[in-house]
Amino acid sequence: MKRLAFLLGAAVVAAPLSAQTLPPVLRLDHIWMVIDSATYHDLTVSPFLHGEFGGYALRDSAAPGEPAGVYLYGHHTYLVFVPPGGFPGAAPGDVGIALSSETPGGLIRLARHLAFDSVPFDTATVMLHDSAGTVPWYLELHPAGADSIGPHAALRAMEYTLAMTQRVAARDSFGTDDRDRDRFIATHYDSLQLLGDVTRATLAVPATELAAMRRTLVAWGLKVYAEGAGAVVELPAMTLRLVPAYAGTGVENLTFMLNHEAAANPTYRFGLRTRLEFGPGPTAVWEFAPR
Q: In total, how many domains does the chain have?
């Protein structure tokens, strides 16, 4: 298990107790989900998704920290629709949640908090390789030991690195202390398109994985409320519901805040299992039938 030394080295020894007891505020960064081949095909050929809904990107091959799939970008949050096999072992119904610290050093604070409470975790630095070169992209922390989650659900906390922030700062001139999520996806977001942000999501996961996710989110300092056998997690500007996968695993629904109302409140269907319905007002709900 990689612990604080991975992130801090000798600096950990000097960390005051008060710093160890305060986890950072975590916000939704993105949700990924593995969907069936027919639905995935419809997403790749939809003129509406390509040109009107939100920032659209299609990645044909997996890279570290970036599975193959259809990416839909909002202002601060985004979605990744992964085809079967989009990363090793990916199967329809698998889901993942990435939460982000927007405060420099926030992930280090979280690691200190977990170490102080003897909560096991693993860490990694994910590298970005692109035409501009190679740069440390983000730090990642995820549960380990008894609270390891899988194989059908994943949960991680992340923070964009100083090196990545320096690269972005060369473009937007906002400096390196600003780690807000929108900076790092700004080249994909279009305020003239519909998608603003994900404001609500319901995920169905197996009971044992749900229990591990709930314990982890509590350990990370989030507000988690019991809801029957499931849980409601309150994030800034976003509500996450975790429900037992009695009828099948995967995302059940997503609610969006839109940049503007969609004309005539249309409904779109992709594959046999999903329906994206707009309105009333500047909202939309994407429903997914259970697998």
A: 1
